[in-house]
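anyone seen this seq b4? input:
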Amino acid sequence: QDHLVESGGGSVQAGGSLRLSCAASGFTLSSSVDYCMAWFRQAPGKEREGVAAIDRNGYSPYAQSVRDRFTIFTDSAKNTLYLQMNSLKPEDTAMYYCAIRLSCSIAALGPATLSRQTYTYWGQGTQVTVSS
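predicted toks r here
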């Protein structure tokens, strides 16, 4: 069964770090398979927003709010997507979700890369809370 499972969320103080993981069961994350994966987040009362994305070519666009603080990467041997989050701020507090779209490339998606409607499969989310 195809599904995504996030983990690694938690509570940290501002300035701290967390690494989120997204285990992709039923999907193959390798350089021979076209896919796009992304991290999104949703804070209470706000829309779900794209944080970062990556494809098999390694292209990885970021939202302006997290650029230079967050890093998205994959481990094909573990079939897992990661989000390394450094210098966390209280405004990073949200539920974080991973998502995947198959037969995809970021070059083809363009501005839709960080759009919620682009992605087909979603995980259940992991909570990140940053205190000041």
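The mean pLDDT is 95. The CA atoms of residues 73 and 82 lie 5 Å apart. kinda curious what u guys think
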